[in-house]
Amino acid sequence: MRFRVAEVDAALAEAAGGVLAKLTEPADAVWRGLAGAGVLGALVPGEAGLDENCLPPLMETLGHAGVAVPAAETIAVGAPLLAELPVLGGVLDGSVLLTVSLDTEAPVPFAADADLFVVGAGDRLRLFRREELGITPLASVDASRKLARLSVPSRGGVVVGEGASVVETAWLRGVLATAGLLVGLGGRMVELTVAYVRQREQFGVPVGSFQAVKHALADVVVELRFARASVLAAGWAQAAGEADTGVRTSAAKVLASEAARSTARAAIQCHGAMGYTTEYELHRYAKRAWALAADWGGPAEHRALVARALGLP
Amino acid sequence: MDLTWSPEEEAFRRAAREWLAAHVPSPPLPSGDTRAGFAAHLAWERELFAARWSVVSWPEEYGGRGASLWEWLIFEEEYHRAGAPARVTQNGVFLLAPTLFRFGTAEQRARLLPRIAAAEDLWAQGWSEPEAGSDLAALRSRAVRADGGWRLTGHKTWTTRGAFCTHLFGLFRTGPQDARHRALTYFLVPLDAPGVTVRGFQRLDGDEGFAEVFLDDVFVPDADVLGEVGQGWTVAMATTGSERGLTLRSPGRFLHTAERLLELAREVGSGAHRDRVAQAWIDAQAYQWFTLEQVTAIAGGHEVGAEASLAKLFWSELDVRLHETAAELLGPEAELAGPWSKGFLFSLAGPIYAGTNEIQRNIVAERLLGLPRR
Q1: How much is the pLDDT for A236?
Q2: What is the pLDDT of residues B21-40, one digit of tens each?
Q3: In whole numbers, what is the pLDDT of chain B averaged over residues?
Q4: Best exposed site among A94, A281, A284, B274 by fewest CB in 10 Å?
Q5: Which residues of A touch B300 (CB under 8 A)?
Q6: Contact B282/A2, CB-based, under 8 Å?
Q7: In the predicted model, is pLDDT for residue B245 greater than 60?
Q8: Mean pLDDT score, B46-67
Q9: End of a domain among B185, B209, B233?
């Protein structure tokens, strides 16, 4: 028993962190930088030799940076499905942008810009090129995710995965990665808020000395730390093929989504009017948190999955 | 990450499970916070000791099994899973004993630990006072130098099971009042000593499990000072980490309550309760994962400091939520006396004892986040 990120998994997150320390925009340059560090192929068979244990720390690092890149879609879900295809090289070097949609009714992140699409329907995952789909860009709260609605033909594309378990694995990896991103986003919002309330003075003292502010932040730190542990446990369950992997993954997503939402709320409140402006960076993390909390299944959906697995009436 | 148990740990789990299945009292014992219930609990804990399950993580010379922290967690999980009685010796086992291991003299350890393990000496915690609850550094009970020891005078209160215990460990002021926490000393006091008066009183749940302890010029020899004179605060705080987090509230307790909640929901629940029940179960799982993370860190030499406050905030609020959810499921039946209503009333104490949650939030904000004190 050892509840600690293994060295190989920590090393991958550190490699990503090294890129992000030097570069946080524009997003396509960051993406190519991450590609250069070998981050994108983490779960591709025959590449880094890693399993889902690498996702929580890596995604936490990427979420913390808040960059608008299809991390969950490409690293956790899409790229590992392309192992046999010639397009893999372009995806892994960052020159070809890939996104994923397992729910073609919903707006698809990064779809307005993507070159390749892995689309799930029923028990089948198919790969489409941009020109094979109908793409309608959508305005959204987090504008950096470049949402679009897809119109997917019933035929065509290249089948990159088949069978309920293959689709389930892709889904669970996407959920896990998104939960990891949310934990990282939450951590970043706490850091920004702590820095702000330490220096911002009202009534002659830093606002961070007020108990109401302290308690608001302490509560979200508790939520985030417990969500983080649950995301790590879900990553291990996926890698180990535990029987209750689905429940653990859904539980982690519920906790991470709720924690990130609470944190966004507390962070904006503790910043006062400064939190309600786009001239300050907090809004970017908050908007990403709202988007990701609802993406890959929101808390209500995952809570219902847990309830069903537990046999609740 | 590797969350698999070793074959040795699995064997330990099986041994604990089998013994508990054969020995856990049935029907359940009456509350250990009543005089009659306390006696029944003592008989159980002595049985536990005889089979060397009372203090599994202690060295064998004191009555333990030398079990690892992981094995201790396994034992706790099995203990709660088996529906075994709450430990009425917990203040001695989980709060005083870790302090003795760390700060006690060899003589004190040899004299006191085996009697704690065997449920012979029953210890109450004498920290809180009428004017010093969360502001413990304001306590007024005093100790003055006497020939070969100290004379203690003061008033302790909200002492859990104080009316049934044989001994008290407590903090007393050995320097000026304005020195706050810098002039306190940790004393071990027999409750049958001349000058001690104990008065039991009822808690919110109706059990007589509280007591106030009056000390009027009570003599305590030097041999019963724990740690250095004037260092009582340091000695006490070094073990509050255990109280707030791990040893007082192992995950097994909440995992078991969550399982009982699931059973109740399957029995009487409707779709209206589904979300709350699922969330309570999710939170109990989260407490387990966080604890495993902490134990890994401790096993790697990490000292748990302010992080214990994260755990305390989480488990105490979780316990209330688990019981509130059960009350929702029970509807009008929730008002009836029974394990759930009893558990609900007791859960309300969690956010208060071992340092109120308001204090814990301040600790998180100031020590983990670095926010300014006022």
Answers
A1: 98
A2: 999 999 999 999 999 999 99
A3: 94
A4: A281
A5: 4
A6: no
A7: no
A8: 96
A9: B233
Phi, psi for A268 (deg, rounded to 5): -65, -45
Q: What is the mean pLDDT of chain A?
A: 97
Measured between beta carbons, the chain A residues lying within 8 angstroms of B373 are 209
Q: Which residues of chain B neighbour A313 with C-beta distances below 8 Å?
A: 265-266, 269-271, 274
The answer to whether B129 is a known catalytic residue is no
Contacts 24+ apart (CB under 8 A), A305-308: A305/A246, A305/A247, A305/A250, A306/A247, A306/A250, A306/A251, A306/A254, A306/B278, A306/B281, A306/B282, A307/B274, A307/B275, A307/B277, A307/B278
Task: Give the A:B interface size as CB pairs under 8 Å.
Answer: 168
Measured between CB atoms, does B336 come within 8 Å of chain A?
no
Nearest CA in chain A to B74: A1
Is the confidence at residue A69, as pLDDT, over 80? Answer: yes
Same domain, B214 and B252: no
Query: What pLDDT digit, counting tens, does each position of B247-290 carry?
Result: 668 899 999 999 999 999 999 989 999 999 999 999 999 999 99
pLDDT in tens, B74-109: 999 999 999 999 999 999 998 999 999 999 999 999
Q: Which long-range contacts (CB under 8 A, 24 or more apart) does B193-200 make?
A: B193/B218, B193/B219, B193/B220, B194/B218, B194/B219, B195/B152, B195/B219, B198/B162, B198/B163, B199/B163, B200/B162, B200/B163
A303 contacts on B by Cβ (under 8 Å): 274-275, 278-279, 282
**Partner-chain contact A236 B278, CB within 8 Å:** no
CATH of the domain at A175: 1.20.140.10
Do residue B29 and residue B72 come from a single domain?
A: yes
**B193 and B271 both lie in a single domain:** no
The pLDDT tens digits for A19-34 are 999 998 899 999 999 9
Distance (Å) from the C-alpha of residue A42 to the closest C-alpha of chain B? Answer: 17
- Domain presence at residue A14: no
Choose, from B71, B77, B243, B307, the residue flagged as catalytic.
B243
Q: What is the dihedral of CA B175, B176, B177, B180, to 10 degrees?
A: -60
Cis peptide before B27 (omega within 30 of 0): yes
